[in-house]
## 1
Amino acid sequence: EPILRIRDMEYSYGNGEMALKQVSLDIYKGEKIAVIGSNGAGKSTFFLTTNGVLSPQRGEIIYNGQEINKKNIKELRKNIGIVFQDADNQIIASTVLAEVGFGPMNLKLHKDEVMDRVDEALSYMNLSSFKARPPHYLSGGEKKRVTIADIIAMKPEIIIFDEPLASLDPYNADMLEEILEKLESEQKTLLISTHDIDFAYRWAERLIVFANGRIIADGAPIEIFQNR
Ligand code: ADP
Ligand code: ADP
């Protein structure tokens, strides 16, 4: 059974145009999915509706067998984490510790559990020595790692990376690939949007191609590239 099932999802920002049109797909636990498509194709909108930040006007989302509605939409946000492209817009707290603790605190977990999760996420991201630092003064790559720690501390089942490679230097890009390998070994389900076709081909088991708000291809990278 798929972990996430989406049927005929449609989303409009209210300007008459549909940013997503009849989007349907099933996602299985542990899949490694690359999402590609030109700017404006709908990738970000797809991510934001998939994790419940935006509510689609039409369609069905079934998470772990449970149909999502207004009352349980929080289940999506809790279980599907997004690492946004722009780390600066994602960081809100004045120390790395408070930043990474913010999500678990919002889950109303016990204080000890929050601290355990923060320690675990920081050590996972090689950031343990950064706890007391103000995140805004870190380097771009370090900020990116903080935003990934934010998501890891939530222990989501599915992690979405919105163009993670776009702003990273080679050192941090290598580090990101190591983190992806660790997450894969833990059977996390991963979706990554990218303009880097070489990366998508090398990394992904499944490729989803968006154009004009629709999924125009979905399958093994080798099959999709053969048909283009
Ligand atoms: P991406 O890198 O995901 O393609 P975009 O450049 O599409 O990012 O969008 C960057 C930001 O601008 C996002 O927050 C998006 O919601 C917003 N945005 C994109 N298109 C529009 C638009 N036509 N009107 C208002 N905001 C937009
Ligand atoms: P992508 O992530 O593939 O670049 P988006 O999901 O950002 O695509 O955009 C899909 C469509 O929705 C585009 O036409 C874009 O201009 C529009 N859009 C995105 N964000 C907004 C927004 N906040 N307000 C209005 N239109 C938006």
Note: The longest strand covers residues 18-27.
## 2
Amino acid sequence: GDADAFEIEAPGGLRLADVGGMQEVKDRLEAAFLAPMRNPELRKLFGKSLRGGLLLYGPPGCGKTFIARAIAGELGASFMSVSLSDVLDMYIGQSEKNVHEVFRSARRKAPCVVFLDELDALGAKRSRSHHSGLRNAVNQLLVELDGVEGDNEGVFVLAATNVPWDVDIALRRPGRLDRTLLVLPPDEPAREAILRYHLKDRPIESIDLGKLVKVTDGFSGADLAHLCDSASESALMDSARTGTVRMINTKDLLAAAKQLRPSTEAW
Ligand code: ATP
């Protein structure tokens, strides 16, 4: 893990409205996170502090990163995505330094959303195994989350995990990652948006997205990406064989869907 490698994206134009479907997620985000940010007078009146972050959890590949980016867009904030597994370093003291560096960079770029992916990499279960420096990394993260008075102004911490039960309980205390948001596999409108996204730069016939959306219940965003890849591959193979471009059609996509098992069944 090299802390200098943590890139910060300038404020982007992505908005919650760009997130297809997932109305409950968007409503809760608006109510629990964005509305208080936007209304300092109300915050003051109701004694709500700005401290504390949000833990997004749910099966992998279901748009947590995408949603986090949209939140940054809503806040007009820069976006820094950090995978905890990249922060951890086997050299003594280096993990803590990396954690500190992440927050130092974010504070310099405030307003900034820090998106901590794979938060469970810091989990208690793993600390008992090989990573002896893990406890120190967790402690450093606690220090950064608590901050010194005013330190974290304009630093919004979002974290994500597929295994919320592995997340260190100390990280969940009030003022830390004290709010949670379940991000389930994409619903129909979300699946349609994801399919559109993955097909937009490919040669396609007019596609029956409605039908496709119906047969992909339980598919994650990653599954849908995979589905588009394999459909694309069949059309490519046909094209290569015959020497004329055969565009991707609904049949390719339906056939690919049949071959795949949704990866989120357990949720
Ligand atoms: P995770 O962080 O949960 O692993 P992700 O953020 O990498 O997931 P995917 O779910 O794999 O995202 O989606 C891949 C791409 O599909 C996103 O980058 C985005 O462009 C698009 N996408 C995903 N979900 C939606 C959605 N609800 N509406 C519109 N586009 C979406």
Note: The mean pLDDT is 91.
## 3
Amino acid sequence: DAPETIFVERRDRVGLITLHRPKSLNALNRQLAREVLEALKAFDADDNVGAIVITGSARAFAAGADIEEMANLTFAEFYCDDIFAPWDELRSVSKPIIAAVGGYALGGGCELALMCDFIIAAEDAQFGQPEIKLGILPGIGGSQRLAKAVGKAVAMDLILTGRTIDVHEAKAVGMVARVVPSNELLQTALEAAHTIAGYNCPAVRMAKEAVNVAFEASLTEGMRHERRLFQAAFATEGQKEGMHAFIAKRAPVFRHR
Ligand code: HXC
């Protein structure tokens, strides 16, 4: 079935997912979670796609989990029907995912942005984990990823006070990779994704895998993992092409498969 809560399109070698529930500022309900994950998996399996961008509207990337959908759920219902479980599958996507964030990225919206590989944000972006104001706490990795991204002090401040930070504070603490004018947000994100999609595809996936190991493993294990991936890169055609092109002083042409 065609998705109803998102737009899915391909721009050249970039897969673009646009969250679209304008009446609720892109609140993340079950249907949206299912549709985003389906689209991501399809892009991950598509040889014509080398990188992915997730964006929202000018007003909101996403204002969090859908409060109306959650409000009356009991512990037993939540436990037996774990409506947030689909988001865990985002970790299995091996191609890079860029979050292009304008407007509100709150609660689950902030967590979704943090789940992506990096964030490019518009001048008017706002980030926060306001769950504490609703009597709850982050539920799709915010307490873990925010702590890893910005350290204990800032993570505790945001999660315990529920305050919202502007894009400059988010950039200063390391949540955001780049800040751009609002009217250049999508273009900048698509260009970054396009650049990535033009590189040696296995090397791109290996690089993403290697950085992610840093969040799970000891330095020794992580270094070993990186070294094996580095050596494996020499089994790819793209490594030969990249290096021979450099030596011949020409632009490399990576074959995508
Ligand atoms: C459902 C939401 C929503 C949400 C906004 N809306 N956020 N509906 N779930 N998370 C709806 C509003 O009810 C309203 O609907 C419409 O979107 C526009 O929002 P307004 O509040 O009228 O806009 P504004 O005054 O500009 O305020 C914007 C806002 C505010 C600051 C973002 O909407 C807000 O505080 N939203 C909730 C943010 C939040 O608490 N997020 C955390 C959710 S819990 P109507 O019908 O009135 O027009 C969470 C848990 C994570 O994320 C767990 C894992 C996913």
Note: The pocket of hexanoyl-coenzyme A is lined by residues 24-25, 27-28, 63-68, 84, 104, 106-108, 130-131, 134, 138-140 (CB under 6 Å).
